[in-house]
Recover the amino acids of this structure.
């Protein structure tokens, strides 16, 4: 990879990949709509960059990426790699079916805020049409410290619905429930045991974030509604179980341990470390409940 074009390179995700590629010694050209460039209708200069690039990264919204495909792919050089960074993969994967067989296609989704950086973070990789440049870029991500997880397009979207849409929905629902309980944030902060403090921190991160990011997670993924339905069903199951009695509640916990399977102990240890960190930072003597 010697010459790369990052479309949407002024954004957070685009900047993340531009820095990764330039750090590996590639010549990186950044294109962005903020500078008046339109990847769906490239001018002569941008068209020339597309033709010369051996890697083109699309760090743009899904609607733009889908519209750009018909213009972008025919203009790319044989053997070049087109990378998308979309948070939803299945619709894009369908749109790429039947495109040129001599262009590599790779979907990447950093499963973290770009400001956190690659080291130790998971990156979902959806290989639509692989080849040497695909393997080179995945190797570069691994060298940068990322945990590359290969997955199919539909499976990616199902997993994203579980790991992102469901998680965010649970935290937002927690916040909406707090608003109905007649308690204040100051009161909660003074008394919060570690599990509650963790949820408050997650709520603060989402509520203080960019609404468009979280809206996209809930609205764009075709499996997000299913995840929210599962959350509602889970709350109903808990209510019914509490009403049924302690034995049924014990059975529910047993069933949930089986959901975690072999990850039960590792995540239990991870939780203990998190709570210990909270204790060390706050000087609190609160215990988990």
């Amino acid at each position: 990879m010697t010459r790369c074009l990052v479309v949407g390179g002024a954004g957070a995700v685009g900047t993340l990949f531009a820095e990764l590629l330039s750090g590996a010694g590639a010549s990186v050209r950044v294109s962005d709509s903020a500078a008046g460039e339109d990847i769906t209708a490239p001018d002569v200069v941008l068209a020339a960059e597309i033709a010369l690039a051996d890697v083109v990264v699309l760090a743009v919204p899904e609607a733009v990426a889908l519209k750009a495909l018909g213009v972008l792919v025919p203009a790319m050089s044989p053997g070049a790699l087109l990378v998308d960074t979309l948070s939803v993969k299945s619709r894009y994967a369908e749109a790429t079916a039947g495109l040129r067989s001599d262009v590599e296609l790779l979907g990447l989704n950093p499963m973290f805020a770009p400001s956190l950086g690659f080291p130790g973070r998971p990156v979902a990789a959806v290989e639509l049409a692989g080849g040497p440049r695909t393997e080179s870029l995945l190797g570069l991500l691994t060298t940068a410290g990322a945990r590359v997880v290969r997955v199919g397009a539909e499976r990616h979207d199902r997993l994203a619905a579980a790991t992102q849409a469901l998680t965010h929905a649970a935290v937002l629902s927690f916040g909406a429930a707090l608003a109905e309980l007649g308690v204040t944030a100051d009161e909660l902060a003074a008394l919060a045991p570690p599990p509650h403090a963790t949820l408050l921190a997650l709520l603060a991160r989402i509520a203080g974030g960019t609404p468009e990011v979280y809206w996209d997670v809930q609205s764009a993924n075709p499996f997000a509604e299913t995840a929210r339905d599962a959350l509602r069903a889970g709350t109903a199951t808990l209510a019914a179980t509490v009403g049924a009695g302690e034995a049924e509640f014990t059975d529910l916990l047993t069933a949930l341990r089986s959901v975690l399977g072999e990850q039960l102990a590792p995540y239990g240890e991870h939780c203990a470390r998190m709570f210990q960190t909270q204790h060390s930072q706050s000087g609190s003597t609160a215990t988990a409940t």
About this structure: The longest helix spans residues 153-178.
